[in-house]
Amino acid sequence: MPLKTKLSCRNVWKLYGANAERFLDRDMPPSGEDLRKAGIIGAVRNASIDIAEGEIFIIMGLSGSGKSTLVRCLSRLIEPTAGQVLFDGTDLLCANEAELIEIRRHKMGMVFQHFALLPHLTVLQNVMFPLTIQGVAKSQAAESALEVVELVGLKGREAYYPRELSGGQQQRVGIARSLVTEPDLWFLDEPFSALDPLIRREMQDEFLRLQARLHKTIVFITHDFEEAVRLADRIAIMKDGEIIQVATPEELVLNPASDYVAEFTRHIPRSKVLSVGGIMSAELTGEGDPIPQVTRISAVAEEIISADSPRPVCDGDGRIIGSIGRNAVAHVLFGSGEAS
Amino acid sequence: MRSIARFQTAMAWGLILATLLLGWFGRDLAKALDARWLVKFPSAWVIHFKTKISAAMKWLVEEAAIGPVAFTDITRALAWLIEQPYELVLAFLAHGFFLDSGADPLVILPAISWIAVTAGVIALGHYCRDWGLALLVGACCIYLAVFGQWESAMVTLASVLIAVPIGAGGGLMAGIWAYRHPLGERILSPILDLMQTIPIFAYLVPILFMFGFGPVSALVATIIYATPPMIRITILALKAVDPEILDFGRMAGTTERQLMWRVLVPSASQSLMVGVNQVIMLTLNMVIIASMIGAGGLGFDVLAALRRLDIGAGFEAGIAIVVLAIAVDRLSQAFAERMGQIQHVQPGSWLARHKRTALVTTLLAVTWVLGQFSPLLLTYPESQTITTGVFWNDTVKYLNVNYFDLFEAVKVFFLHWFLLPIKKVLLGLPWPWAIAMLSLLGWRIGGAKLALLCAALSTLILISGLWSKAMITVYLCGASVILATLIGVPLGVLAALNRRAGAVVNLLIDTLQTLPSFVYLIPVVMLFRVGDFTAMIAIVLYALAPAVRYAAHGVRNINEELIEAGLVSGCTKWQLLRLVRLPLALPEILLGINQTIMLALSMLVITALVGTRDLGQEVYIALTKADTGRGLVAGLAIAFVAIIADRLIKAGARGARLRFGLES
Predict the structure, then answer these.
(1) DSSP assignments along A187-206, one per residue
(2) Is B269 part of the contact surface with chain A (CB cutoff 8 Å)?
(3) CATH topology classification for A5-107+183-268
(4) Which residues of A touch B269 (CB under 8 A)?
(5) What is the CATH number of domain B152-343?
(6) Angle value at C-alpha B619, between B615 and B625, nearest 5 degrees
């Protein structure tokens, strides 16, 4: 089923430096070499992506790769130098000040790396803030805020101030605040990077739980490839302002577009990314119950390896489409990392 | 390479020697060559900026108008706007409310009782922090009452209560404007720079001219003096707000106004309160100076005592200003802290939550009602006041009678061996040589731009006919700064290296800094009478603090690893200080000296009261004659001297930092 595109950007550029606009007027888009010579910094270069409704789209890149700039171009916190940002089919860059405020008030939410909570407000007041500036009545705003506070598991701490909470709890407030207006589009800018590893894991689970309930369209920024693989439907990898590859985690591991991408995928436990369908052989043999092709290897590895003969693999409708044996699984688990 | 460096050093020493010799024999040389214009700029060449400015001011006040609205209408309206709340607060705190202003006016409501004020202040202290603060500020109030300073203190407090909100609010608005519009900042920042270097007196004159003698003029001057730091701090504080908070505000869909007032300003409130505190302290600094153009209260008491040379009374009123400053400063700081703290709303009725407010309000009402029958409840009885004035007067008299010869010997020694030689060299220096040397220095330290600035500013001083007065300024200020550096830097180094000495030095410096500048003059005048030496001592005392502070800071902040490197190389303590600590602290020490120079220059106008003959005196005379042009030109000349010194030293400090790799 083709999904409806919620947000897309076409040939978005963000250049810093004197006369940066003029640089884009030529027929050919400038190369990195051209920009360097002119002393212009290309924070985002010719980025085009389509994000489907209800999808978790992750933009992954190391620091300085332009991922934060790109997400700020998508939300128009930064004015792109050139290009189009289509939100529900209309160009966000053409919206005037009042329209933009209206869109942000009702259709967008954002979570920040360092939480960006207002220090002088309590948890409840922080969560209510987006509603109060819209002029929603106080009692009604408090009611909506209480609901999301409960949703993120902070019930009972409404009267606390941000300083009194741990990092993880503060980010829960940040998440609650970004959800209180029931936005369609949810931006998360490295939301878990400032947290301890254990808390980060817990928050990732929490995030997946929330998404299973809310089905938002999500643009998620991270520099952590493991996090990206764990959460993403699709990942865009950025380097030096350019998007190098857009693919599902499995495709990235199986067919990295460049050595740079392959370098990221090398240290990822492949069994957790690859699905049965991705490495099965086309032979329609095998014994025992068929395994659905979308199953992750890690979930069935033990069964397959301990079995004497290959198992059949079926598609979504239960048709047998191939088989998987212990050699293929062993290669995924213990192989050197090169795609087979 | 080596020989070039050696040649440059020799050259520099040669030039310094030549300058000294030229200065010393300058007058004789000019006489011998029959070229007096070399040392004394011919009056025919002077451009009379001051008469032009005076004429412009006169036109502004008498004729200028925008359509039907005359300039004076605007100043009058402003004055009215400031006067109304001031009169109200003044009546409330000090004079009481009257029905008509005849010879025997009918009192409707007397001023608020001293008991109620003291109770209110104690309650506020307790609310903001604890009983310790409550006791301190309560004691300050009782001191003011017992030493008979109550009414003057309330008059001063009234002007603080008006000037601070206007200064802080105006500063906040200007800062916000500059934050929002880059152009605003580009306009404001040079103005702020200039305002920090022009002595306050220079703009007292035009204010006096526009608003007349009286409390409103004093308030306007105070506000102008106290606002710039608030503007700077506002800009800095808003810029320092986490960019994520700014992004959040935008993403929440705030309008520009909501973004500023509901996101940025609250997030920056901690830093903004520092600015408010600055405004309060500067307002209190200005109390005495403002009394020269019509403010009453404690400042007027000090000034009047100074003019009578009544050390006892002046000292008491001076201490009362300090006491008031301490109380207001501690209270405002504690209040800011309290606002930044977490406050969970306590359950209970209004009365249970506002015990202190209820108590103070009740006390206020009771003292007002019962005060009709017993005046003791309203004003502290005069018969019960104590004064230490007699004690101070007697002490000074005793010292003068018994140690006159000693004081005289010290004074003569300094004059003969230190002050007069410097004065002779500076006054004898031919001005073409002086300007050339100054430009050369600027070129060596900071390149062509700085050289041009030095040349232009010194030439402006020259052609406005103020050269010799400027040289006396440089002499007085330079001698004081040399002395302050010789005393201050070793003290600072000592404070940094020895904890116990540090505590003592810190206490000394803190005390020196809270005393209003005028207070230094009184005892010095009593012991050494008027003259340059007296002025120098007062300037040294006033300007000492930054030399000590920066030196201590510089020595303390040296990278620990460098000290360890010195230690393992086998440095003795003395070598460590001479070879590692002092050279690395040099940039900081230079900045401290820079601050010392700025303070010394701002003190010059005050020392004009003891009969110096420099630019400060020029400003002071202009003030007494309300001669706007003369005051502004002399004030600008002081500012130019300050700017030249400031730029040269800052460039030097930067050069040192670059050499040490502390900055790139």
Answers:
(1) EEESTTTTS-HHHHHHHHHH
(2) yes
(3) Rossmann fold (3.40.50)
(4) 120
(5) 1.10.3720.10
(6) 140
